[in-house]
Amino acid sequence: MKTTDQLETLDALVSLCKRRGYIFQSSEIYGGLNGFWDYGPLGVELRRNILDFWWNRVVREREDVVGMDASIIMHPKVWEASGHVGSFYDMMVDCMSCKRRFRTDHLARDAGTDEPPKTCPECSGDLTEPREFGLMFETHVGATKDSQAVAYLRPETAQAMFVNFRNVQMATRMKVPFGIAQSGKAFRNEVTPRNFTFRSREFEQMELEFFVHPEEEREWFDFWLQERFSWYGDLGIRQEKLRLRPHREDELAHYARYTSDVEYEFPFGWQELEGVANRGSFDLDQHMKASGKELGYFDDARNEKFVPSVIESSAGLDRTVLTVLADAFAVEQVGEEERTVLRLAPHIAPRQVSVFPLVKKLAEPSRKLYDELKKHFNVLYDAGGSIGKRYRREDEVGTPFCVTVDFDGLDDGTATVRDRDSMEQERVSLDGMVDYLRERLSLER
Question: What architecture is domain 2-88+135-325?
């Protein structure tokens, strides 16, 4: 059995995602809108499973992290204080021949030089002089559309956790070190959204801001860096495709003392999935200065007042979904046939079990089993086509187990369970089916 599990391009995956209901181009019937994507019936389930897995690991399984959910539109002074209004932009150029638009830093990176080239990499046409391109989406709040009504769609979720630090700490009586986590939509008017859902203009973040004593910055940074790196392995992503990359001094964000990225090797190269950064007290200091409100913390045990440093973990949900799909994609030669399979980790698979009657005469006992299993798992009932075609459909969408009800099972109270990855089949008692599947769908399998 020959297996190809290295995507050379994203084309085959993009096709599968549309065909099987994972991801669609937004507003496709009108020609689409670049940088925006819609998640179909399977995509929304995978997305939710990954988000829940993150929330459980970061919040519910810990005593020192609590959650919140902030509004997308905040007071514009938040973004002035954070530095976004004054400095949140990319430098861009346009090709005067083919009209393509590029970020100058991407041109320099792709050319392997410090300075961007003067000619277009697509058509060799002349490029315009670099100019600033603001990344925040503007909107207006209220009845008028003047400068006093300007607001912004948030470009990140982090600032809400900084401005609410005092509210959360007092409401929960949490003691430093502790963290605040949230997930939610963010918006960036990217110059060149590309690589499917990897770089989009609307995306969802999963962020943690962990507040610590300044003397404990390095200890907690190292802890969260390893904790977050191991999480991707627990998603089922191959370890050899993951790495940690510390930022060089010249690429650090203005607020960061040091940063490391979790990266994955895509067909288009090593790319960031998540950044773990020591932001120091930059954000709390900025918001105290701009608002005039106290955001310090008094530590009873130390008998000391201080402004906490912040260790940030910032991940992209959409990038993680794409990574999981890309890593799971494989094409195999099985005998004379070729099968496409998504080897998704069972605990995050959007559909966990499919139930098939071998023939239509077995619909009634199959439906009975389906009704029982759907109380515990996300289950599909499918009676259409040959059993082989049904298996192939479920392989392609990543369903870990297919259960087939046949005539032998009517006599001995069993059904056949087929494993997606090995394609091996096992007779399992109907009475023990729920426990059998639950064990194999768990992370600890």
Answer: 2-Layer Sandwich (3.30)
